[in-house]
Design goal:
- The protein has about 270 residues and is an alpha/beta fold.
- It has helices at about 60-65, 75-80, 100, 115-125, 130-135, 140-150, 200-205, 215-230, 245, and strands at about 10-15, 40-45, 50-55, 70, 90-95, 110-115, 155, 160-165, 165-170, 180-185, 190-195, 235-240, 260.
- Zinc ion (ZN) binds next to α3.
């Protein structure tokens, strides 16, 4: 048997939304809770000597303008900080099709996209008739993914699957119908890149679901699924929490506040 591949794992912040409140982060929270709760946007990269697998694609400048987000760097620029060339990446795992996860797809012209079947169904089906469900999607991104399907550039999964030795995806739903999280074998064990299975640490810690949601029950069950697949609570990385940048070390002091290593144990 070949020994399992161990990966270096990075989170790269590319954008931020500072003007947010706690009331926007938890179902059932006090609607008047105006305490400041910024949200950061990340992509993640698993790197081995032979291969790089990117998780999600971010969004671009025009999307940032349309939606009032502050793009700090393109995902291509962010990946270049760890010496990864986005244009040559061969595999991109797409956790789900919201604009902030698929909006940078054009930066990966050589990539195969790895996606849950149910996510494509969700993003192209009747739920998209209503603004309440479709507002985090951008029709142009979804059309582009349909074109990618016809070009043979999308690999579909129905549940758990191995993308490469030491990298698996796990369908969880909840936030969207086909949301998947990613489990990566690193030198500190199995780390789970939760993406939007838990936006903040606090969503999973308090079992306090996020308000953008397709199925609340599946979202809550998702917090337990993360714990099942990670070696410990400290091996789970939420999708949008600025605290990720405080808890994990930068690979280089110049990248402080932008890039962190998730394959090194976090501080409290
Ligand atoms: Zn997101």
């Amino acid at each position: 048997m070949t020994s399992p591949q161990v990966w270096d794992l990075y989170a790269i912040k590319y954008a931020t939304l500072q003007e947010r409140t706690r009331s926007e982060s938890f179902i059932g929270s006090d609607p008047h809770d105006a305490a400041h709760m910024p949200l950061d946007y990340f992509v993640w990269a698993a790197v081995s000597p032979e291969q790089t697998i990117v998780i999600d694609t971010g969004f671009d400048g025009s999307e940032a303008t349309t939606r009032g987000r502050a793009l700090e760097r393109t995902v291509t620029e962010g990946l270049a900080m760890i010496d990864v060339t986005a244009a040559s990446v061969k595999d991109v795992i797409v956790t789900h099709l919201h604009y902030d996860h698929i909006g940078g797809h054009e930066e990966f012209p050589a990539a195969q996209f790895h996606l849950q079947e149910s996510e494509m169904r969700y993003a192209t089906g009747p739920h998209m008739c209503n603004h309440a469900m479709n507002h985090p999607f951008t029709a142009d991104h979804i059309s582009a993914m349909v074109r990618n399907v016809f070009e043979g550039r999308v690999s579909f999964y129905d549940g758990a699957a191995e993308i490469a030795p030491g990298i698996t995806v796990h369908h969880v739903g909840g936030h969207t119908m086909g949301l998947q999280f990613v489990r990566v074998l690193t030198k500190r064990g199995w780390v789970v890149v939760a993406s939007d299975t838990s936006h903040y640490y606090e969503n999973m810690e308090r079992i306090a679901p996020f308000p953008i949601v397709y199925n609340v029950g599946d979202m809550i069950r998702g917090y337990a699924r993360l714990r099942e697949q990670a070696d410990s609570e400290a091996h789970i990385v939420p999708g949008h929490d600025p605290m990720v940048l405080d808890r994990y070390p930068a690979p280089d002091p110049r990248l402080e506040g932008t890039v962190v290593r998730l394959d090194i144990a976090p501080t409290e």
